[in-house]
Design goal:
Number of domains: 1
Shape: globular
Order of helices and strands: EHEHEHEHEHEHEHEHH
CATH topology: TIM Barrel
Strand order of the largest sheet: 1-2-3-4-5-6-7-8
Number of strands: 8
Structural class: alpha/beta
Helix content: 40-55%
Radius of gyration: 17 Å
Largest sheet: 8 strands, parallel
Bound molecules: nickel (II) ion
CATH architecture: Alpha-Beta Barrel
Length: 256
């Protein structure tokens, strides 16, 4: 069974049919999902989903685009969400995102460091979002000696992928791997050892080919796994087995 390691089923795009979509996942060969928190509100929702469905796990954390009103009290709440809910398995998604013009690098870096510290305090792995930070995100991870993490929706070079692997990181790929112009992602995937790879949808975004541009969901993670099998030169079954084992290890989940 596949493990979608990064999904946002709390997203309003699932408001009409969330229950049905989630209940259908086993028919698509999906055994487990991690629902990722990206703000205070979606962190609470991720925990609620994990507590509702036995095969859904959660992370809590605040995405760099959502940090502008964060407070120290929020950090305490994140901590309590972890301590009170055993299905919370990582802090994330956290990181840097300089894509938009209104991004405030200092503020983002402050809360990124603060949440890395929280993860350290709680001995939790981290789910990292890095967009257009031009190396700053990895610099902070190195500076804080973070070793237990995943770089989600990886879009960097093969060289960067190798560097992250050396640091101890997992590398996770989305449907971007299936896009026609994905040469860079394909090269990066080639550079990552099998035991460090994970698959994800980042749904409702990033739908893989042949569904690009539509609402994504965990059932489409098989397209990412198929493409990854092709790139790594192993069977589809082997990629499913390995990426699921990797995800179980990363999120510290016992038995399938
Ligand atoms: Ni995400």
């Amino acid at each position: 069974m596949l493990f979608d390691t990064h999904a946002h089923f709390d997203d309003p795009q699932f408001d009409e049919d969330r229950e049905q979509v989630i209940q259908s996942l086993r028919d698509y060969g999906v055994g487990n999902v991690t629902n990722i928190g990206a703000s205070m509100e979606t962190s609470r929702q991720a925990v609620a989903l994990a507590n509702q469905y036995d095969f859904i796990y959660a992370t809590v954390g605040v995405h760099p685009g959502e940090v502008d009103e964060l407070t120290e009290q929020d950090m305490q709440e994140l901590k309590n969400l972890v301590l009170n809910n055993p299905k919370v398995r990582a802090i994330g998604e956290i990181g840097l995102d300089y894509h938009y013009e209104d991004a405030d690098p200092d503020e983002q870096q402050f809360w990124f460091r603060r949440q890395l510290k929280l993860a350290e305090e709680l001995s939790m792995p981290v789910v990292i979002h890095d967009r257009d930070s031009k190396g700053k995100c990895i610099e902070i991870l190195e500076e804080m000696d973070v070793r237990n993490g995943v770089m989600h929706c990886f879009s960097g070079s093969a060289e960067t992928a190798r560097k992250l692997v050396d640091m101890g990181f997992m590398i996770s790929f989305t449907g971007v791997l299936t896009f026609k112009n994905a040469r860079r992602a394909v090269e990066a995937c080639q550079a990552v050892p099998l035991e460090r790879l994970m698959v994800e949808t980042d749904c409702p975004y990033m739908a893989p080919e042949p569904h690009r541009g539509t609402r994504n969901f965990s059932g489409y993670v098989k397209y990412v796994a198929e493409k990854m099998a092709e790139i790594k030169g192993v069977s589809y079954e082997e990629i499913v087995r390995i990426t699921t084992e990797n995800a179980m290890r990363f999120y510290q989940i016992k038995n399938v």
